[in-house]
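Notes continue from the previous slide.

Worked example: a multi-chain complex. Inputs as given:
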Amino acid sequence: MTVKTRYFVIVSLLVIVIGLGTGLVAYYVGFPTNAFFSRGGPEELRFLPSSASVIAYADVREVMASELRQRFRRSVASGAQENGQREFQNLTGINIETDIERVIACFDATANGSAGMGAGVVLARGTFDDVKIEALMRQHGASLENYRGKRLITGDRFVPPFPVNNNSNPGNDSTQAPQIAPPQSSEGFSLAFMEPGLVALGSRTLVQHAIDLLVSGGASAATNDDLVSHVRAMEGGNVWAVGRMDVLRARAKLPDIVANQLPPITWFSIRGRIDGGLQALLSAEARDDESANNLRDVIRGFLALAKLQTSSKPEFQRFVQSLELSGTGRTVALSLDVPSQVFDALGAIATPPPSRQPQ
Amino acid sequence: MNNSSLLRSAFRVFDISLGQMLWSRRSVLLGLLVGAPVVLAAAVRLYAAASQLPVINATRLSGPTLFGIIIWWLFVRFIVPVLGVFYGTALIADEVDDKTITYLFTRPVRRASVLIGKYLAYLACVVLLVLPSVVLVYFLVVPIGGRIGESFPSLAADLGMLAVGLAAYGAVFALVGARLKRPLIIGLVFVFGWELAVLSIPGYLKRLSVAYYLQALVPHAMPQDSSISGLLLALQDQPPVSVSLIYLSVIVVLSLWLAGKAVEGREYVLEQ
């Protein structure tokens, strides 16, 4: 065998062995090696603060393409949704269906947001028309500044031109132009193009913090082991949320009478998979075993009540029967499977019956 | 001469033939065949980075699905049979055409060892090129909306299936090359005529093809390009994996044995 042939054989075998080895490790260890996930959760976690109270994720592309969403759009609110999307695109240059790949949102109850109520930031990954978005925001009164080499678009009194739900106002027509949301934060709304295809928008504090993390690194949600371990458990869902209930409750300043009634939950998580239907797993981590048992008893009671209530409604029976309570120790979990028929039934209920023609 | 000397001689022939096969003009064809899916996969990956894959039948095309389609249409249906035909039929025929077979047959080794050595060289050559190509395609395409870990069992099954397919087609066409004149034409007719025809006809004729057993090993669902193919798929029966493996092993052993007998007994007349 010549040297050239030997090298060829070695290179070929290396490609096969490395490929199979990587696949084997991914298969057994379960580390996600797709483009969306790094070692534990979405890669955008490294731009979110380590003190995040709630993190939510949505694979917009998958959800938009899901059969459930298509059915929902056809049956429930096709006109309103399409108009809203078109106007959102006209205002921001972003087509929700095609431009946004995934979003990850974070709420930090400990951040200095408006009225001390915390702050939030959304990181959107996709294809964006930077020039159009920037021009549009400036048109609405936003100012441009340079923050650590990134263009930060901020408006102290600027309100993002996102459509708000008009359905709460019975007089509104869904075809009207979207209302401009009222100002919610005294510190203003900021937007920054973090890197190609990644936009951060939300509270100025957290957007600046995201840029800090991008430029110089540091402690982030990705380095918060407790958070990452909860996020890792969300793998497989195309929508999910993870949060610290104890932090939220402490910051919510609820009246004692209400706060004492709430179950002592430390962590909560919701993992959903939207495709032909909706499969979801709601989990809560109670403070101790006794609290978890109490919570399970409460849920069990609600489940029994729900089964009783839906015994005469076959369209909802399958959904109620799919509710399954599980969990051991401090963990309480409730899984559910909502078939598309349930959404069809809801759509039928939501659709007003045709008015009778006068005889 | 006993079996150990047959294998020793075959290994010597394998050692010489592997380099000859790898660096021959025919390797350009091989390079194009195995390089095309990699280029295609890279293009798809770039496209997916900028946009999203199209929706087919209300379902967005995902990386694992696309990988299954590439395996079916490019590798199982085209690359593996074509490589088998071009290389398998040439194992002996090339030596006859080049008038170099005399040098091999005048050596103090059994003629069958020449065929077996060349067959092993063919197998090593194509396996070392096709399998890395599949691995590269897998890592380029599957992460588009899929997970590498989740799809890994299908990759392992694909690699095994392709190696078995290359062995089976190579053995069949080694027999064709050893016994018949104009083996290339006969091979092409077999692959693109006979096999395609019998696979679409209900009945037992499909059992006289390699593709029938090979397709049973493919871990991906067969892509349906039309309602007719969907109907054919519904009518199609597939043997169990174990049965397919047994039949393919029988095909390899029997074809090589018959090819060895043919080479041992046949008088090759070199045209002057």
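Summary box: The two ends of chain A are 96 Å apart (CA to CA). Chain A touches chain B at residues 1-2, 4-5, 8-9, 12-13, 15-16, 19-20, 22-24, 26-35, 61-62, 65, 67, 70, 98, 101, 127 (CB under 8 Å).
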